[in-house]
Amino acid sequence: MIIIDEAHHSAANTWVETINHFSKAKVVKLTGTLIRTDGIELAGELVYKYKLSQAMANNYVKSLRNIEYVPEKLLLTIDKDESKQYTVEELLELGLRDEDWIRRSVAFSEECSNSVVDEIREIIIPRLITRFQIDQSKKNLSGCRLFNGKYRWIKNRAADNGALLGMYFNTYLRNEIGKKREEWKVSDFDIAFEKLPVVVEFVEKILNEYLQTDKAEK
Q1: What is the Cα–Cα distance from 76 to 101, expressed in whole angstroms?
Q2: From the CB of residue 94, how many other CB atoms can be counted at a distance below 10 Å?
Q3: Mean pLDDT per 10-residue interval, the chain, length 218 residues
């Protein structure tokens, strides 16, 4: 039997190849994210569904409440200057162009930037390390072809496997978007989150090939 947790990733080539290799095995898929962002449907028959509302009622997860708050008057600031507040009408009268407004939205950019970093550091890398049983304190992944060509410099900068992976993901996103993270606009963060699942699947494939070959040579 094959049990796949986070089964919304089961459409990845590595999982498809594994399931095809063990073609006679029963496959059980578990996921809290049934709908993938790329629209690919999960193969298989739905046999059990457990609603979030049930989990909250049974105290398995924290209870969530939807609170809508509409202020009587909306006031905005520019460049975090709390000494002066503007209504939407007053901002329009200032004649700010769209690109100026987006460039000034530093608070949103900083928050989004932290969310991208957290996604890579706290979710993606730990999952890769657990799945492939990587020793984070070592630096044996430096021989992987992820770190060839324009990513070769990472091998000299990173101290261990965790840093290698983190720097790879961050460099990949910077190269794809074409500018440093501190220069990203709000739309660039949307692109970053769209590209993360794609690059994760690619990294999984390369790591699988490299670690299997490394194990065979030993």
Answers
A1: 12
A2: 10
A3: 88 84 92 72 85 81 67 70 77 61 45 70 87 89 92 92 92 89 77 87 91 66
Distance (Å, whole) CA 178 – CA 185? 12
3-state secondary structure the chain: CEEECCHHHCCCHHHHHHHHHCCCCCEEECCCCCCCCCCCCCCCCCCCCCCHHHHHHCCCCCCCCCCCCCCCCCCECCCCCCCCCECHHHHHHHCCCHHHHHHHCHHHHHHHHHHHHHHHHHHHHHHHHHHCCCCCCCCHHHHCHHHCHHHCCHHHHCCCHHHHHHHHHHHHHHHHHCCCHHHCCHHHHHHHHHHHHHHHHHHHHHHHHHHHHHHHHC
